[in-house]
Design goal:
By secondary structure, this protein is of the alpha/beta class. It has 2 domains: 219 residues, Rossmann fold (3-Layer(aba) Sandwich); 107 residues, 3-Layer(aba) Sandwich (Rossmann fold). The protein contains 12 helices and 12 strands. The strands form 3 sheets. The protein has a 6-stranded mixed β-sheet with strand order 3-4-12-9-10-11, with helices on both faces. Strands 7-6-5-8 form a 4-stranded parallel β-sheet, sandwiched between helices. Strand 6, helix 4 and strand 7 form a beta-alpha-beta unit. Helix 1 packs across helix 9 and helix 2 crosses helix 3.
Length: 331
């Protein structure tokens, strides 16, 4: 089923709503009441291994189809969840997919890369380049596809554009229907579209974003997205954005000790598996927010599980840490 909003088109890629599940053992481990913490299971979205990017892709792919595209093109890191799910959306919709990834070809495929190939994507390796250089390679690939009459549509990095963010305006309204007494939604902040959509739906005071290091200036990125999401009306006066910038550590792809501890805590208390880049950082941010009193007992807190499990199996530091945990459990 296709829908439209404000001239933008949406195509159905999943079934909604995703579950909202209690996490009483994790809540008590953090010092919250047993009914205070809930998990919004956007990792259980069925397409391509699941994850938050599907909500954005319903809108960005819908727009691409409406404009006559036959090929989806996007970019990201080698273990990009967004790239994997763009490939899955392309397969579902009968479109070709080209992924422009930073880095060099690898002899073996692991994690999201293995799924990229399984889902039929063609990968163009851009080399060890920065953001501007990656964008230049992306533009070249799109130009070559146009010359071959492949009708490419450029899907933005992380799916985060004003159109893509509409997916989490929808997601925010869905969450509010499930938890009308919501005090805080905690979410990983990568390319910004997920948090921007949630802020548009819930208000800035009810969304806590944990920066993961995917963009250099998350506040500026969010401001740009929100300006477009509220257009043509100006954004209403509201409290400042709630951002945690303390969980990036040595960089986007590096595992920190607080994140490793948070991943282990979620797994041991609720059987909840997180990834080391996004949901692990978001959980570490939640742990710190409770400790500092920003999130308090007696209030409904929802952790947005944005998926990303395949990335765990492509992250060498996380796998080494898992091996150490397993060794400690082996008798």
């Amino acid at each position: 089923m296709d829908t439209t909003r404000g001239g933008h088109h949406k195509v159905a890629l999943a079934s909604w709503p995703t579950p909202l599940e209690p996490a009483p053992r994790l809540a008590q481990a953090l010092g919250l009441g047993p009914d205070d913490l809930w998990i919004k299971r956007d990792d259980l979205i069925g397409l391509g291994g699941g994850g938050n990017k599907v909500r954005k892709l319903e809108w960005t792919c819908g727009q691409a189809l409406a404009e006559g595209a036959r090929t989806l093109v996007t970019s990201g890191a080698p273990q990009s969840n967004h790239a994997r799910l763009t490939a899955a959306a392309g397969a579902r919709l009968g479109m070709d997919t080209v992924l422009v990834l930073a880095g060099e070809p690898t002899e073996t495929a692991a994690g999201n890369l293995a799924l990229d190939g399984l889902l039929g994507a063609r990968i163009v390796w851009a080399g060890s380049v920065g953001g501007a250089e990656l964008a230049a390679v992306l533009d070249r690939v799109v130009g070559e596809l146009r010359e071959r009459d492949a009708a490419p549509a450029l899907i933005p990095f992380g799916g985060s554009s004003p159109v893509g963010a509409l997916g989490y305006v929808d997601g925010g309204h869905e969450l509010l229907a499930q938890a009308p007494d919501l005090a805080t939604a905690v979410v990983a902040l990568g390319s910004g579209g997920t948090m921007a959509g949630l802020v548009r739906a819930l208000g800035a005071d009810r969304v806590l974003g944990v920066h993961c290091g995917a963009v250099p200036d998350p506040g500026h990125t969010l401001d740009l997205l929100l300006t477009d999401l509220y257009a043509p009306s100006p954004a209403p006066r509201q409290p400042g954005l709630r951002l945690r910038l303390d969980q990036v550590g040595a960089g986007y792809s590096r595992l920190t000790e607080p994140v490793a501890e948070a991943v282990l805590l979620a797994a041991r208390t609720e059987g909840l598996v997180l990834d080391p880049v996004y949901t692990g950082r978001a959980m570490a941010g939640l742990v710190t927010a409770v400790r500092e009193g920003d999130i308090r007992p007696g209030e409904r807190t929802v952790f947005i599980h944005t998926g990303g499990l395949p990335g765990l199996f492509g992250h060498q530091e996380a796998l080494l840490r898992a091996g150490e945990v397993l060794a400690a459990c082996t008798r």
